[in-house]
């Protein structure tokens, strides 16, 4: 429903797509995700600019800063600019510490 600009490229986000769906469709290489349900926080991205509105298909459970979104359950109208968050060393929800 609008253009999305990421660290890698720009693409058009279709009406039925979440931000994550659009990034997978356009073969973004750096996108991270796990649960696709809004609770693990792996797909957090920073919003650097936007026109239009952001809304969620389901309420996110993961903790977010005011300028962050969860790509797995976020939809947008208008233009959206997002950047990847640096891996801050948080353990993944699905990481088995015995593997380390």
UniProtKB/TrEMBL annotation:
It comes from Moraxella pluranimalium. One of its GO terms (molecular function) is 2 iron, 2 sulfur cluster binding. This is (2Fe-2S)-binding protein. PROSITE patterns: 2FE2S_FER_1. It holds the Pfam family Fer2. Residues 13-77 form the 2Fe-2S ferredoxin-type domain.
């Amino acid at each position: 429903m609008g253009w999305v600009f990421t660290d890698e490229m720009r693409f058009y986000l279709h009406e039925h797509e979440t931000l994550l769906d659009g990034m997978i469709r356009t073969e973004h290489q750096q996108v991270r995700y796990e649960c696709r349900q809004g609770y693990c926080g792996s797909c957090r991205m920073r919003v650097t600019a936007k026109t239009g509105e952001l809304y969620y298909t389901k309420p996110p459970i993961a903790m977010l800063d005011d300028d962050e979104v969860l790509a797995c359950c976020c939809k947008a109208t208008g233009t959206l600019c997002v950047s990847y968050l640096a891996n801050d060393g948080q353990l993944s929800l699905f990481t088995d510490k015995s593997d380390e």
